[in-house]
Hints:
about 45% helix; 15 helices; alpha/beta; binds pyridoxal-5'-phosphate; seven-stranded mixed β-sheet; about 400 residues
Amino acid sequence: MIADxxxxxxxxxSVIREMFEExxxxxxxxxxxNVYDFSLGNPNVxxxxxxxxxxxxxxxxxxxxxLHGYMSNSGYEDVRNAIARSxxxxxxxxxxxxxxxxxxxxxxxxNTIFKTILNPSDEVITFAPFFGEYRNxxxxxxxxxxxxxPDVTSFRPKFDEFEAKINKKTRAVIINNPNNPTGVVYSExxxxxxxxxxxxxxxxxxxxxxLISDEPYRELVYDGVSVPYxxxxxxxxxxxxxxxxxxSLPGERIGYLVIxxxxxxxxxxxxxxxxxxxxxxxxxxxxLQQKVVAKCLDAKVNVEAYDKNRKALYEGxxxxxxxxxxxxxxxxxxxxxxxxxxxxxxxxAKKHNILMVPGSSFGGPGYVRLAYCVSxxxxxxxLPHFAELAKEMGL
Length: 395
Ligand code: PLP
């Protein structure tokens, strides 16, 4: 029998997976080209060619025993140094290898940092709608996720509610910029406002409150939008980065944490994060992929392909009368459900072979998420089906 704590988790973790299964079922009946599956955030743009080139070069030239062996739990020192230098060049920061901990993707990094900082019943604040896995990552360490309700006009933080929710138990605030599921990018003004509130509350409460920046979509932005680098605005910041989306490597499980020297008890934090990596069972991030990303620090996926999809989907759906938030980053489109119940709307869409995820799974009821990391043809071919759906919804 599985653990009691897992019973609820298994039951609640299935919405996106169910969609995936549904997609497979529909594809068998109607053919894959006639199913418009916008449910999964799995990049469809290939990894840049530098990645395969780097893999070949590394396996051909590096000492095989060293390459496939254990290393420091934080990762190879030369890799961490290369990442630190690249960040310094791009964001005018002052990191070195000691500030970087290589992780098993963003998910591994977030679990590592929550293990490092959370005591039982500590609170972590996030802003709805949010990546649903945060709930699990926080509860893994017996913390409690506290959600600031969404501002449905801008999908930017409600500052008053945020400030009111910070209390003595608040240990961290996690933000995701660019955002999954809304595609919104928080501006420098928004970040400064968050930082000011946290600074004020730290002083008032006499506690340490960490700002965790979850940024796997940092490189996926459109129309020249810039994503502020958070360590510049607030000392107690930890950055969680991942190459899953920026290099289209989600299956390779590689990313890193940045723990700046300005953070409270920086040296203890660095050591603890390294130990957490080990004792959570990751031991270290995948060795080959560490070497690969170090060789691909300036490589980029074809963001233009996502941009083309973004424009086609946003313009196509708004023309049909659907209300959408114009995405500025990531590869998700956030659309208002024309009926109150977003699950009902997703079920209606399924009848037109369109798969989307109900906003409720992101703490954003009344909306749905469409992942447009699909082929351009899928988007173009889906629009007549969305037109039928719009008609059925009375738009
Ligand atoms: N954070 C956000 C906001 C995500 O959207 C995802 C994946 O979709 C993750 C973290 C996990 O990313 P990774 O595959 O790097 O673990």
